[in-house]
Q: What sequence folds into this?
C-alpha cells in the first residue's frame, strides 16, 4: 500500500491500524526521522515521568511512605502515557510524510488490516 492510498483509506475508515507501542518509541531516537515538535513532546513527557521516579525515590527519606508511593504511581502512569503518545505521534507523522510511513511499515511498527 502506498502513502496516498494509506491516507485516503485511513480518512474513510477502511483500514484498521495497529501500532506497536514499544517499537514506536525507537523511531524517536533518530533526530532526522521524526518531526521536531513530536520529539520535543515525547522528551517532555518522558522527562516528567523519570523526574517523578527520582522525586518519589528521594522523598521516601523525607515524607510518609504513602506520599512517595503516590508519586511513583503517578510517574508510572506518565510513562505509560509516553508509550501511547509515541504511537500516536508515529501515526501523525506517517499520515503527513511518505518516508516515515514507508520506514514504519518496513520496521513493522505499523501494521495495516483492511476492513471489509
A:
Amino acid at each position: 500500500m502506498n502513502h496516498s492510498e494509506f491516507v485516503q483509506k485511513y480518512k474513510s475508515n477502511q483500514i484498521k491500524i495497529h501500532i506497536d507501542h514499544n517499537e514506536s518509541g525507537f523511531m524517536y531516537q533518530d533526530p532526522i526521522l521524526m518531526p521536531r515538535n513530536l520529539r520535543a513532546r515525547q522528551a517532555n513527557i518522558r522527562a516528567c515521568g523519570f523526574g517523578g521516579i527520582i522525586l518519589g525515590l528521594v522523598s521516601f527519606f523525607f515524607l510518609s511512605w504513602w506520599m512517595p508511593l503516590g508519586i511513583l504511581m503517578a510517574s508510572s502512569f506518565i510513562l505509560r502515557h509516553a508509550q501511547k503518545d509515541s504511537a500516536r505521534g508515529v501515526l501523525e507523522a506517517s499520515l503527513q510524510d511518505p518516508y516515515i510511513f514507508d520506514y514504519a511499515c518496513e520496521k513493522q511498527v505499523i501494521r495495516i488490516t483492511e476492513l471489509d
About this structure: The chain has a mean pLDDT of 93. The longest helix spans residues 66-96.
